[in-house]
Ribonuclease D (Desulfoluna limicola), 381 residues
Amino acid sequence: MTIMINNLHFVETPEALEEIADFFLNADCIGVDIEADSMFHFREKVCLIQMAAGDLIAVIDPLAIDDMSPIVPVFEKPEIRKIFHGSDYDVRSLNRDFGITIRNLFDTELASRFLGIAETGLGSVMKNRFGVELDKTYQKKDWSKRPLTDGMIEYGAGDVIYLPKLAAILDQELEEKGRTDWVDEECLLLSGVRHQENGAEPLFTRVKGAGKLDRRSLAVLEELLQLRLVISEKKDRPPFKVFSNASLLTLAKDKPLTPGRLKACGALSPRQASTHGNQVLEAVEKGVSLPEEEMPQYPRRKRPSFKPDVPKRMDAIKDYRDSVADNLELDPPILINKALMTAIAACNPGTVDQLYTIGGLRQWQINILGEGIINALHSAS
């Protein structure tokens, strides 16, 4: 079955945006999705906003409209339910680019997981629920390029057309299983996530494997990462498309200081070596020459020291959680993850009320698991 799209509006002028915003302000429920260009540019941005209510679908081009403020009240109006599928990235991006705060969010991907559905990707859910095959033709396209083709616009619309209908189905199933409050609480927390930059931390803290390097190699790696950032911004390309993390790790370990050694280590392609070889060698030399007292050190989180009976409590909580998850036909970490179980075992609360002192523990988790966890802790003692 293919998706038939009839009432589709492509919005690319301020006047059209104001008109469509007025329409959505009177809607009860809106399906929302975005397309971005994170795979193609240094600074990612939202390139398309798709919204659906009733039989109308709007595909909004924010790159053609200087002022997106008319649509902001739609997302902020609490009486309008905003339906996303896998909303974390969308929420962060809409807030970063347009200052949008989303009130009354519902995430159909999250709801599907809380119903015990194994395959929760939008394509799988659409196929299983509606027999619809989503078109993947434009999934990896550069959405910042203009003009957009009719096929790209229809592709964007296809991702939102069924979201309100899907939300209604999931609502009923959540209600039948008594899990509506669980999802509502999680969705409220999701609506508050925000985009974060790297801050003052060294760039190497985000490179997998950097923690195994010695301090001199870390110094070289940081210089290379800083160089990659400069080149990426200048070329307007994502950093991973300039040099891969694996290549930079190899360079940090081998520390080539001559063109011959650079070629021998095999970290760069001939084209990369020809284009950026001298800059890479300069960065390596700078890291190698850094005074010892200035060399960076990988930040190690001090592992908490636990009393000998904490692992026993942890096992008791895990056994209880797993039994509940089995009865509910849910993946156990959805109920409560390892970090929270460890925190509970370390605190060893004696009553359900004392669980409220543990940061990150949700109200629905305390309601469902609280008494059982306390009993498990008592048994472990």
